Amino acid sequence: MVLLIAAVCFAALCFNGLCAQTQASAKTPAKSAVNLTELMSDSGMNVSKMNFSLYVLPQLSVAQTVKFNPPKPGWKLKHIVILGSDGWNSTHKELPVQDVFAVEVRDENLNLLYQYADTQVDYFTSPTGIKMAAIDVPDVTVNGPFYIGFYGRGVVGVAAELNKTTGNSFYYLRDAMTLAKGTVPPYGNVTLPVNWIIRAYGA
Questions:
Q1: Domain count across the chain
Q2: Contacts for 195 with CB less than 8 Å, ≥ 6 apart
């Protein structure tokens, strides 16, 4: 497992080198915020003030995953918001290549509650190079801590906050059905904990 995570982090660094200077300009879509509770497991700072980089994972069975604690039993997840990019922006002459991403919602015991897949263009392709993507989900009822996992499948990088980490970001290794801490190695073998910028909205 250690070797797998090392390989994942190394691949992430390759994308990070291209995207580290990207600044977030998009805001959370208004429909995701109206009369809903926002759950965050990152620092909670405005993304325009965050120190973050983008990390893409090439492995199809590894998800960038965040743990959330709902405010009450029976809370219903309605929207998932992810800050990410497929690397395309308005300076590219060619249109972006379409590929598939996936999201999963799992309960505290990692049992699958919901899964969704779609092409990335409508969600993560932006002239500015990065986007707050809102993914609508049917009401998913949670009665305790839950996880949202994102499979970028080598196409979409998720924003990773590099300071003020909360310990709630992980890699979910689907084949092993286990979690590993969300870290990246910025230099050599030194690992750095991160917050994946994935947020949940519900009521």
A1: 1
A2: 41, 42, 43, 66, 160, 161, 164, 165, 166, 168, 169, 182
- Domain hosting 85: range is 2-202
Q: What share of the chain is helix, strand, coil (3-state, %, to 5)?
A: 15, 45, 40
Rounded Cα distance, 107 and 186, in Å:
31
Position 86: which residue type?
A: D
The reported pTM is: 0.84
Contacts of 179 (CB under 8 A, 6+ apart): 65, 110, 147, 170, 171, 172, 173
Residues shown for the chain: 203
167 DSSP assignment: S
User: The domain that contains 32 carries what CATH number?
Assistant: 2.60.120
pLDDT in tens, 128-175: 999 999 999 999 999 999 999 999 999 999 999 999 999 999 999 999
- State the Cα–Cα distance between residues 101 and 121, nearest whole angstrom: 10
